[in-house]
Specification:
The complex is a heterodimer of chains A (about 650) and B (about 270).
Chain A: H1 2-29, H2 36-53, H3 58-85, H4 90-112, E1 130-133, E2 136-139, H5 140-162, H6 164-174, H7 176-181, H8 186-212, H9 219-232, H10 238-258, H11 264-289, H12 301-305, H13 317-325, H14 328-348, H15 351-376, H16 384-401, H17 406-428, H18 433-451, E3 464-465, H19 475-498, H20 500-510, H21 512-517, H22 522-548, E4 550-551, H23 558-571, H24 576-596, H25 604-614, H26 622-642, H27 647-658
Antiparallel strand pairs in A: 1-2, 3-4
Helix pairs in contact in A: 1-5, 1-8, 1-9, 1-10, 2-3, 2-4, 2-8, 2-9, 3-8, 4-23, 4-25, 5-6, 6-8, 9-10, 9-11, 9-18, 10-11, 11-18, 14-19, 15-19, 15-22, 15-24, 16-17, 16-22, 17-22, 19-20, 20-22, 23-24, 23-25, 23-26, 24-25
Chain B: E1 9-20, E2 23-34, E3 38-42, H1 49-57, E4 64-69, E5 72-73, H2 79-85, E6 87-89, H3 102-114, H4 118-121, H5 134-146, H6 162-175, E7 180-184, H7 192-208, E8 214-218, H8 222-228, E9 231-236, E10 239-244, H9 246-250, H10 253-260
Helix pairs in contact in B: 3-5, 3-6
The chains are: A mainly alpha (about 650), B alpha/beta (about 270).
Chain lengths: ~650, ~270
């Protein structure tokens, strides 16, 4: 058993280093870096590139990767993104870092080559030396991990507590503005923190690669485990994060010791370990402490006072002012034009492009679920792909195994998903936005590992087949079926937004205390929106598998859901028509690159999607809303010119009235 | 000063104690708000005024004590239930619904009170496309006129300056047709003219209220509180150190030494 515990401490040690980096950056900047798994993968991939592909020695590869590339990555990302996020809303922070998590692995694969890596090297020279400790073999790689954990914890503690640099970091955590007034440059401290934490992240990546494999997908395990430690640490306590990480490593190893390796349940139980830890800490905090909120303001009153008005909110004042002044056509002409173009496309496109378009419309339905839960509800749910998967896979089950008509099966898939969405909504209702994001992502990973791997969804490893309705078996007919369903749901979303329900949703999203104080039941409103969103995602999933005529669990992998969110957010999370544009972009853009660009450029669309999501740091409403505002302004200018007025005067009069 | 005869009590708090870890934020605080009056609550920074508001409105749960509203024990009720019974409040840092206009704030609060079913039924019907009822329009316009915010009625609140946002909060609170509004530093951040306008509005809404509206006012501007209120409670370090009429508070040694200092904050006889 000791051998297992020693191995568990290695895994736990890697989790500990990763979670240390997360906690330190969260403490110093208020940003939970969802991209750390991707950053860890990128540095590990660079280390492999230098050491294996280019024959550099271990010390040279490690020093360059950890002490040149890692801090450089941290510094570049700080100046490009993180410095703009400090006072943004949790939604913008999460989405921007998720965008990064999508772009970085694709960029790394593009830069270092898309090669199959069977075995990743660690920091120990090959062949790896083996020592004996209490009659138990301990490898050099394991020893290096122990030393790294020890150094990370001890140096981190000493630097933060007993040095001037640590004092400045702690001062900046309390208030960048006050730190600045006392003569310290908070930007310099921040960039230092990001550089150092990026070294931790890179170290975790290089150490983890030999154990979990050098594949971006495998790093989700590292991510889920580190997130569990961070939740346990309530985002802030470094010692608790480290201890929880070590405990998780040991728990994983003991499960391997007690359960037979050959059992399919062993892998599932191991995958569930982070979720179990999260569940325990959630229950502890919610029942005993009655509080699990991340709403603590970043910085002091002075920091809040100098925060630009409206920054971090998902609404544009200027756009709202324009909307308030415009009529129906000026407001809705853009969406109507896009809708008409989408309606014509199935007729003008041919062959495989038309088939892609059918899928695009199905994706658009799924993307509407994000519009509901995140755009309207203000909740950062990262498990919509799981709901789409449940809907899609049950559509296949009901239509193929139970011979339901496929449209009824799609509805059945939606109804099966509804209670799950309501339950997750109810359980996470009292949590802060970051916790909701963390927990829904973990739920998605768990669903992928435990539920979607059930034999019924992939009998004999083969996909389930789905048959389109006989009256709409062709691509054109089924494209219009999907499009009509999309427009019906989009109209529902638009109606919801302008209705009393939508106003109440806005109230809940932007100020829960004030919503409560006018008598709105926040829990009911949130549960309603989560149920609607989960059902919409499931229905979209049903249409997607029907469009593709096959259903496989792999197409609903949790991390792909992050890409979906990145695509939609970059285009417009609060716009129903943006969901349509996002569906088409997500499906058609990669195919354009695959058809007309060199093969090595295949990662470019993913990078673009990721960069688009990063763009929300600057344009929280997304590109559709941003361009829509310009378009509406143009229409308004034309209309005003006819009346001898101008838009600026109109806005000034509106604001003048306000003042 | 508003001189309104108290006939009954709308809000009572008995022995409220609230702790945050080892810190006792409120210790055995008792107060009452008669119907159709303006009652002031003053105290230095950190005295526990906002915490007491939190306990009264249900956003915080006291460890000890009880809160009664129109004679009913509401200590265990959630904020939205208290709001439905007729309690409204504003916030020290204005809490607005950033996607809505001023009018929409008032409409939403009005519908939550009078057409609650529309909170969920509207999303599946087409009622949002039809014109609002005449009674709703009258009620909303009445509040807008009362607070003299016609010029900003259709403006998105995200575009408003601080003074106007405080008016929007008051308008939203009044739209729920409450029996009492808890006002948390409604004058802070306003210039002299805005403060005077809002203070006059407070007096007017209480005076013109058909159902006997009361206001519980937390304010740093002691002179204004003394001028507006018929009864005042003084908190210090979480404890109630005095209560009484403005004259009693003005002459209280405990208040003078603890909060007001040696200097009388208002001119003698000044309202």
């Amino acid at each position: 058993m000791l051998q297992y515990i020693i191995a568990g401490l290695v895994l736990g040690g890697i989790y500990a280093i990763a979670s240390s980096g997360l906690v330190i950056t969260y403490e110093a900047s208020g940003i939970l870096n969802f991209a750390f798994g991707s950053m860890a993968f990128a540095i590990a991939r660079l280390y492999y590139f230098l050491h294996i592909q280019h024959g550099w020695g271990i010390p040279a590869s490690a020093i360059f990767s950890l002490f040149v590339a890692s801090p450089l990555l941290g510094v570049v990302l700080y100046y490009a993104l993180f410095q703009h996020l400090r006072l943004s809303s949790p939604l913008v922070k999460v989405v921007a870092t998720l965008g990064l998590s999508v772009a970085i692995p694709a960029a790394a694969t593009w830069a270092f080559g898309n090669v199959a890596i069977l075995k990743a090297p660690g920091l120990a020279p090959e062949p790896v030396r083996v020592f004996r400790f209490l009659d138990t073999p301990v490898t050099m790689d394991q020893l290096i991990v122990y030393i790294c954990v020890l150094l990370t914890v001890v140096i981190g503690f000493v630097v933060l507590r007993f040095t001037e640099v640590g004092l400045k970091v702690r001062a900046m955590v309390d208030s960048p503005a006050m730190t600045s007034l006392s003569g310290t440059n908070p930007a310099r401290v921040s960039v230092g923190v990001w550089a150092v934490s990026s070294i931790f992240i890179g170290l975790a990546g290089i150490l983890a690669a030999p154990i979990i494999g050098l594949d971006a997908g495998y790093f989700t395990l590292l991510m889920a485990a580190a997130f569990a430690s961070v939740v346990a640490a309530r985002l802030r306590s470094l010692p608790i994060a480290v201890l929880t990480a070590l405990a998780m490593g040991i728990a994983t190893a003991l499960i391997q010791y007690f359960l037979p390796i050959s059992s399919p349940w062993t892998a599932k139980v191991i995958a569930a370990v982070p979720f179990a830890f999260i569940a325990v800490f959630l229950i502890y905090n919610l029942i005993l402490r009655r509080d699990l909120s991340d709403s603590q303001r970043v910085g002091s009153a002075l920091d809040s006072a100098i925060m630009p008005n409206g920054q971090g909110t998902m609404s544009s004042t200027e756009s709202a002012l324009l909307d308030a002044q415009m009529g129906f056509w000026a407001r809705y002409s853009g969406p109507i034009i896009i809708g008409i173009i989408a309606g014509i496309l199935p007729l003008v496109l041919g062959g495989s492009w038309r088939g892609l378009l059918v899928q695009a419309f199905a994706y658009s339905i799924i993307f509407l679920s994000f519009t509901l839960v995140t755009g309207e509800g203000g909740m950062i749910w990262l498990c919509m792909i799981t709901f789409a998967g449940i809907g899609g896979l049950w559509t296949a089950q009901l239509s193929t195994t139970y011979h339901w008509p496929v449209l009824l099966a799609i509805l059945g898939g939606g109804l099966i998903t509804l209670p799950i969405g309501l339950l997750i909504g109810f359980l996470t209702i009292r949590l802060g936005g970051l916790y909701v994001a963390l927990i829904t992502l973990t739920f998605a990973l768990l669903g992928e590992q435990l539920y979607f791997t059930m034999p019924r969804f992939s009998p004999g490893g083969l996909p389930l087949s789905v048959h389109r309705p006989s009256w709409a078996s062709g691509d054109i007919a089924f494209a219009y079926v999907c499009l009509i369903v999309f427009f019906l749901l989009a109209l529902f979303v638009v109606n919801l937004r302008r209705s009393t329900t939508g106003m109440a949703m806005d109230a809940v999203r932007t100020s829960e205390p004030a919503a409560r104080m006018i008598g709105i039941n926040v829990v009911t409103m949130k549960v309603i929106i989560t149920g609607l969103a989960a059902t919409t995602a499931a229905i979209g999933g049903g249409f997607l598998v029907t469009a593709q005529t096959t259903a496989t669990p792999q197409q609903f992998a949790a991390l792909l859901g992050v890409v979906w969110l990145a695509v939609l957010v970059s285009i417009g999370i609060r716009s129903a028509i943006a969901a349509l544009v996002a569906g088409i972009s997500f499906t058609v853009l990669p195919q354009i690159f695959a058809s007309y660009m060199p093969t090595s450029w295949s990662q470019i669309p993913i990078i673009l999607f990721g960069l688009g999501a990063i763009g929300v740091a600057k344009f929280p409403d997304g590109t559709v809303e941003q361009n829509g505002e310009s378009f509406r302004r143009l229409l308004l200018k034309v209309a005003m010119k006819r009346q001898g007025k101008n838009v600026e005067a109109l806005e000034a009069s509106a604001l003048g009235g306000a003042k | 000063m508003t001189t309104i005869t108290a006939t009954d009590t709308v809000l009572e708090a008995h022995g409220i104690t609230k702790r945050f870890g080892g810190l006792v934020a409120l210790n055995d605080v008792t107060l009452d708000v008669p119907k159709n009056t303006i009652v002031g609550l003053v105290g230095p920074n950190g005295a526990g005024k906002s915490t007491l508001f939190g306990c009264l409105s249900g956003l915080l749960r006291p460890e000890e004590g009880s809160v009664h509203f129109n004679g009913e024990d509401i200590t265990g009720l959630k904020p939205q239930k208290r709001a439905q019974l007729g309690m409204a409040r504003t916030f020290q840092q204005p809490e607005l619904f950033l996607g809505l206009t001023v009018r929409e704030h008032i409409v939403l609060a009005h519908r939550v009170r009078y057409e609650r079913r529309r909170l969920w039924s509207d999303m599946i019907g087409a009622k949002s496309l039809s014109k609002p009822s005449a009674s709703e329009v009258d009620a909303i316009d009445g509040i807008i006129e009362l607070l003299e915010i016609q010029a900003i009625a259709e403006t998105p609140v995200a575009a408003l300056p601080l003074g106007s946002t405080r008016l929007v909060e008051v308008a939203r609170a009044l739209a729920t047709n409450p029996d009492i509004v808890l006002l948390d530093e409604p004058l802070s951040g306003l210039d002299l003219r805005e403060s005077e306008q809002l203070a006059m509005a407070f007096t007017r809404v209480v005076k013109e209220s058909a159902k006997g509206l009361s206001l519980l006012l937390v304010e740093h501007d002691v002179a204004t509180v003394l001028a507006l209120s018929s009864k005042i409670f003084v908190l210090e370090f979480g404890q109630l150190i005095a209560s009484g009429t403005p004259d009693e508070i003005r002459n209280s040694e405990a208040v003078r030494s603890a909060y007001l200092g040696d200097e009388d904050p208002t001119p003698k006889g000044g309202n």
